[in-house]
Every structure is written in structure tokens, then in C-alpha cells.
Design brief:
Helix content is 57%, strand content 12%. By secondary structure, the protein is an alpha+beta fold. The protein folds into three domains: 154 residues, no CATH class; 67 residues; 129 residues, CBS-domain (Roll). The strands form three sheets. A four-stranded mixed β-sheet has the order 1-2-3-4. It has a three-stranded antiparallel β-sheet with strand order 5-6-7. Strand 5 and strand 6 form a beta hairpin. The longest helix has 51 residues. It binds zinc ion.
């Protein structure tokens, strides 16, 4: 994540802190200080904020270590003012594993709260308007904070842990994609109800509204990304590549490109060398602009772009799709690994068509 700094690395996971987090600390310290509560209170509330976020880090490590048990690494955790975000390499697809990974975060807070309760014999008051920044018994506040974290994280909405717990439970009885969409809709519904309630009763809280917005967007994203994964699952590059396409020889002129462009629907043309190896790609955009500048007899080889990194027919389509969007190019060449020959072109349009056909066939079967 941009604008974040590494603080330390533990068990192969980098813990990073976002600059906005320092703004939060500054805000809290200055509020207590300027509120006439004096330096001691300002220091105490700043220290308390730091301890709160230590609990957040421990919570995230609950997820990280549980995921590690299933062989999933977590490159980093970033601390934001609204909480921590652990970037797991992937989420386990097995519902029981996702359930364990999701629940292990809140479980850490249960353990901390229980340890304070049992160890120090503290009894605390719980109410929604609890003010953690008011001076009071440090450990009592810390216990209440951990209980709040459990309650907040178990709200059944993405990207909260509760959303993942819900999806995992649903996925034990239904298809994964359907479970995700159902959990995402419920999360969006909750976010909407809370936001509308706030606006109607004019109990407006900017932070809460921001969280509602965040949940709404994240739930939509989660559902969309699972739907896409679902659509491209078990598909290979060869299932979606263009196989009927024109190539240009190394000595081609721009007029040859124009002829092909006007004759068919192909827009971008691979340029091959004399041995059939991939040399570059002539895009429609480059062809048209060079035509105006240099005329129809100009060599194509002068205008073409270097070939993007090729993919192979047996490559997973999801991976190739990522490569295609990362390369910012109109098409990826598909090269046969044995013959080294160009056997196809992978374009976003063709992938889209493949997915439409697949969806239609699935519907027909259902
Ligand atoms: Zn969590």
C-alpha cells in the first residue's frame, strides 16, 4: 500500500503503518491537550491508542498464523486508522479452512479480554457510547476495547471477519459463488440500513458513515472478483485465444497493414521474422498515426511495438488475464512451448466472448 512504512517483520510478515495513522495519533494527542486535559492525559490517551493498535496487530497475526497452518503466506499487514488489513496471498477455498482463518482474529481479542478479566479481576461496563479516550482505568478500557473488537469484527459483512465466517458457513451448504453473493448482499444491506438510520435520526457520525461506505464497496468487490474467478475457473488460454488471425512478414509496409485492417475485424497484427518468430505488434492506433506521418510505403517494422511477454496455450486463463491487464497492450501472443510457433492471440474481447459463451452454455445445461 502506498504511503505506508515498515515497522517490523515477524514470521515472514511485514507490519506496515500508514501515514494517516500518525495523523490519528496527532489528532488524539492534540484533542486531549487542547481540551485542557493537560499533558498527562494527552500522553495517556496516545499510549492507549498505541496499545489499542497493538491489539489490532495481534488480531491480524491470529489470521496470519492460522493461514500459515494451511500453507498460505501473508506478505504484509498495514495499519490504517480504521484498523488493520492483512494481505493474505490467497483466501483458502475450503469453507472449513476459511472459517478457521476468519475466526482466529477475533479469538485473539477474546483471549486478551479474558486474560484481563481473569488475571486482574476487572469488571467493566459495556455500552455503545463508550469513550476510550476519557481517562480511566487503563486495563479496564483495554478489556472493553477487545470486547468491542470482537463484536465489530463479527458483523456479518465483508470485509469484516464476520462476512468471511458467514460465507464459509453458507458455502458448506451451497456453491461458493452463490454463498459469496449472498453474504455480500447481506453486508451491503446492513451498511445501507445503518447509513439510512443515521441520516434519518440525525445521529450522524462521519467515521461510522465512512465504514458503511467502505463495507458497501468492499462487499461489491468481493462478489465481483469471485464471480470472475468462477467464470474463468478451469479455463486455459487455448480455450479463449484467437486462432484465426493475420500475421505480417518482416518486410511488410504500412499499406499491407491497412489492407488487412479494412478487410476484416482484426485490429492488431503480430509481425513475424523470417523464421516465424514473434518480432513485435502493429496496433491499429500506431498504424493510423504512422500512416498520416510517414505514408503507406513506410516499413511496418519501424512502427511496431516490441512484443509483450508471450503466454502459452496451457496457461491458466486467470493468470493470463492478469498478465494482459498488467501489460497495458491490446493482445498477448500465445506461443507453443515445443515448436516456438505463434499459435494464437489473447485479447480482452475474445476472453469476454468466451465467458459469454460459457455462461450461455451453463444456463442451457441448468
Ligand atoms: Zn480480522
Amino acid at each position: 500500500m502506498k504511503w505506508s512504512f515498515r515497522i517490523f517483520t515477524f514470521a515472514g510478515t511485514e507490519v506496515r503503518i500508514h501515514v494517516t495513522f500518525f495523523l490519528l495519533l496527532l489528532f488524539v494527542a492534540s484533542q486531549s491537550f487542547l481540551g485542557g486535559q493537560g499533558l498527562t492525559v494527552a500522553l495517556e490517551s496516545t499510549l492507549f491508542i498505541l496499545t489499542m493498535f497493538t491489539c489490532v496487530v495481534l488480531h491480524e497475526f491470529g489470521h496470519v498464523l492460522a493461514a500459515r497452518g494451511y500453507g498460505i503466506r501473508t506478505p504484509d499487514i498495514t495499519l490504517l486508522p480504521i484498523g488493520g488489513v492483512a494481505r493474505l496471498e490467497r483466501m483458502p477455498r475450503k469453507p472449513s479452512q476459511e472459517f478457521v482463518v476468519a475466526i482466529c482474529g477475533p479469538l485473539v481479542n477474546v483471549i486478551i479480554a479474558a486474560a484481563i478479566y481473569l488475571g486482574l479481576g476487572i469488571n467493566a461496563e459495556f455500552h455503545p457510547g463508550y469513550d476510550f479516550l476519557k481517562s480511566g482505568h487503563f486495563f479496564e478500557k483495554l478489556m472493553v476495547w477487545n470486547v468491542f473488537m470482537v463484536a465489530f469484527n463479527l458483523i456479518p459483512a465483508f470485509p469484516m471477519d464476520g462476512g468471511r465466517v458467514l460465507r464459509a458457513l453458507l458455502a458448506m451448504f451451497m456453491e461458493y459463488g452463490k454463498a459469496t453473493r449472498l453474504a455480500a448482499s447481506l453486508g451491503q444491506g446492513i451498511a445501507m440500513v445503518v447509513a439510512i438510520h443515521m441520516l434519518l435520526t440525525s445521529t450522524f457520525q462521519p467515521m461510522l458513515l465512512l465504514i458503511c461506505f467502505f463495507i458497501f464497496m468492499a462487499a461489491g468487490q468481493e462478489a465481483a472478483s469471485v464471480t470472475q474467478q468462477e467464470a474463468t475457473r478451469n479455463l486455459r488460454v487455448r480455450d479463449a485465444m484467437l486462432t484465426d488471425f493475420h500475421r505480417l512478414p518482416p518486410h511488410a509496409r504500412l499499406r499491407d497493414g491497412v489492407e488487412l485492417l479494412l478487410a476484416g475485424v482484426q485490429q492488431d497484427f503480430p509481425v513475424l521474422d523470417l523464421h516465424g518468430g514473434m518480432q513485435g505488434m502493429l496496433t491499429r492506433h500506431d498504424l493510423i498515426s504512422a500512416l498520416a506521418d510517414k505514408g503507406p510505403d513506410h516499413p511496418v517494422i519501424d512502427v511496431m511495438r516490441p512484443s509483450p511477454e508471450a503466454t502459452q496455450p496451457a496457461t491458466d486463463l486467470t493468470l493470463a488475464l492478469d498478465a494482459l491487464s498488467a501489460c497495458d497492450c491490446p493482445a498477448l501472443p500465445v506461443i507453443d512451448p515445443i515448436s516456438g510457433e505463434l499459435v494464437g492471440l489473447l485479447t480482452a474481447e475474445n476472453i469476454g466472448e468466451t465467458l459469454m459463451v460459457r455462461a450461455a452454455l451453463m444456463k442451457a445445461r441448468a
